[in-house]
Amino acid sequence: MDKIRFGRTDLEVSRIVLGTWVTGGWAWGGSDDRDSIAAILRALELGINFIDTAPVYGFGRSEQVVGMALRQWGGRDNVVVATKCGLEWDERKDIRRNASPARIAREVDDSLSRLGVDRIDLYQIHWPDPETPLEESMKALEKLREAGKIRYIGLSNFNRDQVEDCLRVCDVYSLQPPYNLFEREAEKGLLPFCIERGIATLTYGGLCRGLLTGKFAGTEVFPRGDLRRADPKFKPDRFRQYVKAVDALKKVAAKYGRTSAQFALRWALQQPGVTAAIAGARTARQVEDNVGAVGWSIAAEDLEKVESILAKMIKTPVGPEFMAPRR
Q1: How many Å apart are CA 274 and CA 202, to the nearest integer?
Q2: Given CA atoms 90, 94, 100, 104 in this order, what sign does their dihedral have?
Q3: Residue 48: CATH number of its domain
Q4: CA–CA separation, 1 and 174 (whole Å)
Q5: b/e sequence 270-298, b meaning 16+ C-beta within 10 Å
Q6: Which of 170, 263, 266, 322 is the least buried, fewest Cβ under 10 Å from its Cβ?
């Protein structure tokens, strides 16, 4: 597994990060804890030492399962654990943003307990909260760092201006933006800004909700509770466009003896400003497939071919904006 220094931290991390949104079951049609633990353990066996989770993933369940897997692994030595704060939910599981100092202080203790650790390596505000001044949220995180509950502060789903505002209060060590072959907004300013400021990135959505795995025909209908049911990319007309693009990308990937998922993750890792890429996995087999994204590279002419395929196939592109929680 390729490793890299995570920005200005002292963390040496795998370039593939195990994402655990699916581990919580919510928004992905359910999950099996035994499969999830097997996937986490297989990731650790294969050299992935970076796990990203969040309280809202399954309303605490994902963090609990990660904690169970770490105990089975025999501890968390050399395992980097990242989680988040700033989202809350009610009894109906309606989610809203809340990055108030009181909420952050409560969340970190809940996360420490569910994960079964005494310190979180990377603690990120999940989404900016317009009701709480950024200065207040950042000061709350800095207090947690000084208390030894967290090591490094990160941000998720923040734009460049918001990151700059946060940097006026305290150090920000990482940013987690959505980024994949089909969702490229981060290239326009965010990734270059992170390079300039020495901020590490762990990009998420590398397989674009499964679109880039090549497993879809473009006719699938998703059940209630599945995130993709609300995703504009999976509506009939656009769905077919994206599937045709993936079919074309498969042919390029085949030149390297790789799956379309491996090719998509490799593409992300070769983009300027990308430190590590998050890849979710429901099973150990999916982890094994994701690991095939390291140890090789895509030639320049094939990177150009990718751009040609996207320009030709995707007539009505759309981003991941639908995922933003209620303000």
Answers
A1: 7
A2: positive
A3: 3.20.20.100
A4: 21
A5: ebebbbbbbbbbbbbebbebbbbbbeeeb
A6: 322
Residue 303 covered by a domain: no
pLDDT tens digits, 236-288: 888 999 999 999 999 999 999 999 999 999 999 999 999 999 998 889 999 99
Comparing 321 with 173, the larger pLDDT belongs to 173
Q: Which of 121, 89, 132 is nearest to 107 (CA)?
A: 89
Is the dihedral angle over the CA atoms 298, 303, 253, 53 positive or is it negative?
positive
CA distances from 77 to 119, 133, 213 (A): 12, 36, 32
Is 208 inside any structural domain? yes
Let me know: does 151 contact 122? Beta carbons within 8 Å: yes
Catalytic: which of 57, 123, 173, 204? 57
Number of domains in the chain: 1
Q: Is residue 135 part of a domain?
A: yes
At residue 13's C-alpha, the angle toward residues 205 and 279, to 5°, is: 20
Helices (H), the chain: 33-45, 61-73, 101-115, 134-146, 160-167, 190-197, 236-254, 260-269, 284-291, 300-313
pLDDT digits (tens, 9 = 90+) for 184-214: 999 998 999 999 999 999 999 999 988 999 8
pTM of the entire predicted model:
0.91
Clarify whether 179 is annotated catalytic.
no
Domain hosting residue 285, numbered range: 3-213+260-298
